[in-house]
Amino acid sequence: MKQIKKIGIIGLGLLGGSFALALRKQTGAKIFGIDKNSAHLFKALKMGLVDQKMEETDWVNLDLVVIAIPVNTIPKVTAEILDKVSKNCLVFDTGSIKAPICKALDSHFKRDQFLAVHPIAGTEFSGPEAALHNLFEGKKCIICDSGNTRNDLLEKGIEILQSLNMQVDSMDSISHDKHIAYVSHLSHISSFMLGKTVLEIEQSEKNIFNMAGSGFASTVRLAKSSAETWTPIFMENKSPILKALKEYIKNLESFASCMETDDEKSIFQTMKETNYIGNILDQNGN
After folding, report:
1. How far apart are CA 136 and CA 165, in angstroms?
2. DSSP conformation letters of 265-281
3. Which CATH number fits domain 6-171: 3.40.50.720, 3.40.190.10, 2.60.120.330, 3.40.50.920?
4. How far apart are CA 31 and CA 65, in angstroms?
5. Ranges 34-38, 224-228, 242-246: which has the least confidence
6. For labelling, which of 92, 103, 187, 233 has a CA lying 20 to 30 Å from the CA of 121?
7. Tens digit of pLDDT for each residue in 151-170?
8. For residues 184 and 174, what is the distance between their CA atoms, to the nearest angstrom?
């Protein structure tokens, strides 16, 4: 990808920092960075995630811009960036919701330079120090409403994502947000609430430390995720998440009812039927 010589990264946390590492390795491009948290910018420069701070005069010379910031700030920031970049610069975001972002940008006169991207990759850690050069290898990546992106820039975006060894697929933004609420956002809420419940019921930190096995650790791992990142995600994708959450609560209440009535057969059957989820995950290498 010789045509990519200068890349701008907006937001230098886990995703932005990982894109900086992976894209520099793949393209050899010069990486410009910016973050509203000056400590993150300083650390990213010190760690070599980015080559230099983004200045106002740099925007017009960029070939690619990656926006990795909280989802509620993406539309406004993206619109401002589209105003500044040249006509051949591709701009894509990394938000885990897509419909509100696409809707907000659909009327922008440079909408065809924007690609709505969701790399389904991450860890429970945040900040520049969480960046990984191989975070995206073998991971799924969904692009949404791709028909609104200029063909040459769409091809450029797909080439970039595939060069990072991502499996690229596409769907409309509304469907994306509905399905991601079930398989990602609900699991984060479940993890946070499990952690909250244990902290409230088990007052002894020593007991949590001594008795927590690998099952608890893996289930509650996502509760270490950044509240600054996930609060906007939950609020921006409220309707699909609430639908998923209400169904989840209904199942929890049903399970509790079976426990109260000593309905061992129903408990066994529920778990036995749910084992099928393992077949689905195994087929996808999870």
Report:
1. 7
2. HHHHHHHHHHTTHHHHH
3. 3.40.50.720
4. 10
5. 224-228
6. 103
7. 999 999 999 999 999 999 99
8. 15
